[in-house]
Specification:
283 residues, alpha/beta, Purple Acid Phosphatase, chain A, domain 2, five-stranded mixed β-sheet, 10 strands, 39% helix, Ap4A_hydrolase, Calcineurin-like_PHP_lpxH, Metallophosphoesterase family protein, Pesterase_MJ0912, phosphatase activity
Length: 283
Amino acid sequence: MRIAVMSDIHGNYHALSACVKHAKASGVEGFWFLGDYVGEFPNPQRTLELLYQLREEYDCVFIRGNKEDYLLDGKYNSECEWKRGNKTVGAIKYSYENVTDEDLEFFESMPISKRIEIEGMEPVLICHGAAESNKQKLLPGVFETEVTIACYSEKYVFCGHTHVQQVIKDDTKLVVNPGAVGVPLNIKGSAQYMLIESEGKEWKTTFITIPIDVAAIEDEIRASKLMEYAPYWCRSVIHLLKTGEFSQGTVLNEAMRINDYQEPWYIVPDECWEKALARFNIG
């Protein structure tokens, strides 16, 4: 049995298409998606349509990420913070305006974690961040992570959210992050996912990295309405695709620091964004 495990697409249709093409050529029998399907790239409907198509063709499992929760918050919460925000949260606003009620229902139907049991195989726990929170990051060498995974009964845990391919291993558990399809960290011009294969009752994991056409993606971003909604976020995304350096969250945190944290995260002034981008040499 061979399954593709993908996380953190963030609306990067071109990267998702490349990963799906590779996975199909590798003979996968199913796809496990670990959340964050839209959020950083133009035309989220293309990404979602590809996912819906895969759902018809393959056995697919979908986990809800924190990006989906932002969008659902916009639907259900009258006090939704990002709706009061400026260009800092323009990417969320753009995504919200470009998904349908059916898409939101799809997101709402997803669990934030799932135990998967396949006959003859070790059970697997899949999640976006952690089993109880899609915002928590499972990171190697971090005490909170050690405490969290000690509570899991499953030997294998597959999680996303950090955008980095990594393995956390102890005497009883193997926690594996497939990296990010859409905006991976620490590697440039690439999309990432993971193949898992059955070996007896165990799972063998293989990291996959695929080159993508960053120039074409950049041209599409710059020509889109998303660039008008979220110019600073888009510039940060383009830089990350080209270099593998500095997540959007890192740049946002720097912009907030420059502003002495006088405003909440969703209303960072434009001039602070410009200074933060300049500090990281982001054009």
